[in-house]
Amino acid sequence: MAENDHIAAQAELLASELFEEFFWQKTGPTNHDWPCEDQARHGAKTHPCDVVYYYDEPYDPARTYVHCDLKSYAKGSISANAVKAAVHSLAKQIACAEKSNDWRDKHVHRDANAWISGLLFVYNHDGEYDKNFQDTLLDIQSSALDIPKGSKLVVLGPKEIFWLDNIKYELLRMRGKSNPDLPPHDHCSFFYPELSRRARLRVKTARSATLEMLTSPIITLKYQFPKLSHKKGFVVFYSRKGETEDEFMYLIDIIRKNDLFGEQSDVIIKTLNPSENSSPNFQKAQKRYIESLPIGAEATPLAEYVNAIRYEPISQIKTSYSPIDLGTWS
After folding, report:
1. Where are the alpha helices (DSSP H) in 80-157?
2. 237 DSSP 8-state letter
3. Helix (H) or strand (E) holding 306
4. What ranges make up the beta strands (E) of 175-326?
5. What angle do CA 163, 159, 91 make, to 5 degrees?
6. How many CB atoms lie within 10 A of CB 316?
7. Which is it for the CA torsion 6, 11, 17, 23, positive or negative?
8. pTM for this one?
9. In the chain, what is the greatest distance between 2 CA atoms, to the nearest angstrom?
10. What is the pLDDT of residues 197-231, one digit of tens each?
11. E strands of the chain, at which residues?
12. Beta partners for 68?
């Protein structure tokens, strides 16, 4: 395996480990080319495919297939031009996947109502990228992309991948303790609230974190131990720093509105690299939230639930792979 192949394999390995923890599943072959359906317009005979994942949508009778372009860049290789070229190429791949029998035969399940989306996964393999990745996207005009109506194209940069990777590590740590804080995967699911005039259609089967959830500031996991029905709860991963009481007031109110409170149900909020005042800000927000309730509410179950919320900053971990080791495995 050549050195560049070893570096590319780092993104593949990280994505595989990461999305497994968010309950995405692979479908079909990896690292293959397939015929372009619009060669004159796209200027190519084939398109590449690194890997395709799928998950069921919680609010719609549909299955989303995520066609991925996995990039592994050194700090100096992450440029606006490189990202723009990758986004435009991925948009063409999505457009062709929508109408390609070859792509569908390889990746889509029979009778599935398939929604096809694209994911550009930009992993910084040397861990030294310290710029604002969003700046590399400023010159990309969505109207210039050849994306079919209803499809999505999502870009995860180094910061977002770092955040999701740390959630993965925290879930593994909680599950791996001698007295585990989380049950096995089969007894966990990512949580979607009931929405006004939009019902959760697949309460039991839509367990995965969707693209929308992975790119939102709040990711909530629901769990229940199989033999200890009283041990259940929610882990709320919050991507912001907790710099103000108001942030936590808002978060506590979201938890209440989403009906996460209940008898014998734990709620834990976890943040990464938080403000040094995040813990006192959270404690003050708990007190202020209860004080904002009607007179006498401090003696109600709601006040008890708010007081019982735990706040736990998580340790920061950076995944790194040795290209030499990866070469040895191949």
Report:
1. 80-99, 101-107
2. E
3. helix 301-308
4. 188-190, 218-224, 232-238, 265-272, 310-314
5. 110
6. 10
7. negative
8. 0.91
9. 71
10. 787 777 778 899 999 999 999 999 999 998 766 68
11. 25-26, 32-35, 46-49, 51-56, 63-73, 114-124, 153-156, 188-190, 218-224, 232-238, 265-272, 310-314
12. 51, 119
